[in-house]
Amino acid sequence: MGKEGPCYHCGIEQTPLWRNGPPEKPVLCNACGSRWRTRGTLNDYIPKHALKNVQDTQTDEDSDDHSGSSSTSTNGNTKKKLAR
């Protein structure tokens, strides 16, 4: 039986290939494992599939927030205001 997730770095539970990682993160998804193998570090790395999950979560949280922190354009699309 091979390695199983979730990935110790990004938390994804399904990947085409589970890879070895550093001792503190022994099981990595294909994306994180490839990054570890080629660069030798996972610092400042977030795979695209994890970014998509973060954006989906933020969108869900934004839809629950009715504090007026977003504006609606004339075509009905919601735009986030950037904090300055």
Automatic annotation (TrEMBL):
GO terms for molecular function: sequence-specific DNA binding; zinc ion binding. Keywords: DNA-binding, Metal-binding, Transcription, Transcription regulation, Zinc, Zinc-finger. Gene3D superfamilies: Erythroid Transcription Factor GATA-1, subunit A. The keyword Transport does not apply. Coiled coil: none annotated. Residues 7-40 form the GATA-type domain. Residues 50-84 are annotated as: Disordered. Transmembrane segments: none annotated. GO terms for biological process: regulation of DNA-templated transcription. It holds the Pfam family GATA. PROSITE patterns: GATA_ZN_FINGER_1, GATA_ZN_FINGER_2. It comes from the Eukaryota. Residues 68-77 have a biased composition (Low complexity). This is GATA-type domain-containing protein. It comes from Lactuca sativa. The lineage of its organism: Eukaryota, Viridiplantae, Streptophyta, Embryophyta, Tracheophyta.
